[in-house]
Amino acid sequence: MAYKLLFLDETGNIDARTRAGMAVVVLLVGSNLQVKRVMRAARRRFPKELPARRVYKARDAPEAVTRFILERLATGDVEIVILRVGRRALRHFDGDRNELYAAVVEEAIGRAWEKHPTARPVLHQRYEKAELRNKITERLLRRARRLRIELAPEDVKHRRGSPSEPGLEVVDAVAWAYAQWRRRNKRLSYLYELVRDKTVIDDIFERE
């Protein structure tokens, strides 16, 4: 299948000392319709818990809603790429969290592009600073050139989470579930297991 879109989110803190730490999660899909159908079905199944205008956030949602989303996602043709920040990475980047974050995002998307070069990135805009968004975009443009992928600055989308961005809602579910699994949360670890066989890369990022 040709994957045309990739949605990116992260979980955890970049300098956390916990087992989970920080991970960047990429969800590859063939079209926006795939994730739109998942979220549409979830809102129909849980109209009170997930009304049409409310942004889905796995952290705040009932467990049953997240389970439903992941179960639906698992039935489709999707791939997941995960890159965890290693303990030596922050030291390698001399404590520059923004530079490290941009590097991890670039590497995760670069790994995805090696398999699916036509996928266009949609990133969760968690940060207000345009400087960081520009840094990420510049890195992705350089990576695309190295891989001989045609990519313009406007092809790199930075979007806020909203019901109009179902791909970001779905990848949020994957990232949150992965964090529970990494933390060995006995009650919630099973959520990531629902989509674990869709994960094609789960690796550690230490340095460029």
Q: Tally the helices.
A: 7
Q: Strand order within the widest sheet?
A: 5-4-1-2-3-6
Give the total of beta strands: 6
Which structural class best describes the helix and strand composition? alpha/beta
User: What is the CATH C-level name?
Assistant: Alpha Beta
Tell me the radius of gyration: 16 Å
CATH architecture: 2-Layer Sandwich
At the third CATH level, what is the topology name?
Nucleotidyltransferase, domain 5
Give helix and strand order, one letter per element, not per position.
EEHHEHHEHEHHE
Q: How confident overall, as mean pLDDT?
A: 92
Q: Alpha-carbon distance between the termini?
A: 30 Å
Count of individual domains: 1
* Helix percentage: 40-55%
Strand content: 15-25%
The main β sheet shows up as: 6 strands, mixed
